[in-house]
Amino acid sequence: MAGAGIVTCHSPDKPQQTWRYRESSSPGFDPVVFDASALRARGLITGVASAGRGGTIFFELDGRPLVLREFRRGGMVRHISTHSYLQMGLERSRAMREFNLLMELEALGLPSPQVFAACRTRRGLLETGELVTHLLPGASFAEHAAESVAARGELSSSLAVSVGRCIARFHAAGIEHADLNAHNILVDKTGGTISLLDFDGGRRHVGASVTATTPWAARNLSRLARSLERLDASSVFSELEQAWRAALQESTPSASR
């Protein structure tokens, strides 16, 4: 799904490397964004993510904050290969699939990171990938949960309701998040805007309506419940779930299983 204004090309120096980026992005596209060593040498790196599987770097390009994420494996297979995947073709690569999905989310007006560029590199029968997005300001739902539990012994119910309604917006549009946990939910500084992050492995279901009993949507909520339990913040999950169910019922049928 590379639409108007999207450039897909091979690196002039590395023909096994394919780039995809916006033709008129701001800042302008620079392949240095895929090279953590080069970013470090230029003094552009501003931080490294502490949560997740690693491979996420925060940096600035022409004064604009961006995020570089290297695709890395989870589960037991990570002990065999941390970031190489079986080559399945360009459009089925993780980098290009997430680039395309983020473009869809933007078109749908769903709160998620704006994509900047993607890179897929062929390595024999394997491939690796990187994705660059614009940085969204705020703190993760996990951070809010940890701070609230430490300070008050519980998480704000109003925040839980906002998170539930945000998730319902994505589900009503047929968007399945492959790893919906508290670290992949972002709360802005005012607490008024909730966004979802990291759509690696995500997909869009198009067709009939999504309900609270749609299997993939219910699995998303179950995964989030386990995440909150690990943070000792499971007490607010029932309010979050109720808000999610109510928002789904209010939504116009627009997606399928």
3D structure, described in words:
- The protein has 257 residues and is α+β, with helices and mostly antiparallel strands.
- It folds into two domains: 6-134; 139-250, Transferase(Phosphotransferase), domain 1 (Orthogonal Bundle), CATH 1.10.510.
- Helices cover 31% and strands 23% of the residues.
- It has helices at 36-41, 94-108, 141-152, 157-172, 215-230, 237-250; strands at 6-10, 17-22, 45-48, 56-61, 64-70, 85-86, 115-123, 126-134, 139-140, 175-176, 185-187, 194-196, 203-204.
- Strands 1, 2, 3, 4, 5, 6, 7 and 8 form an eight-stranded antiparallel beta sheet that branches. A three-stranded antiparallel beta sheet has the order 9-11-12.
- Strand 11 (185-187) and strand 12 (194-196) form a beta hairpin.
- Helix 4 (157-172) packs parallel to helix 6 (237-250).
- The longest helix is centred in the middle third of the chain and has 16 residues, at 157-172.
- It is globular and about 55 Å long.
Short précis:
The chain is an alpha+beta fold and 257 residues long. Helices cover 31% and strands 23% of the residues. The protein folds into two domains: 6-134; 139-250, Transferase(Phosphotransferase) domain 1 (Transferase(Phosphotransferase), domain 1), CATH 1.10.510.10.
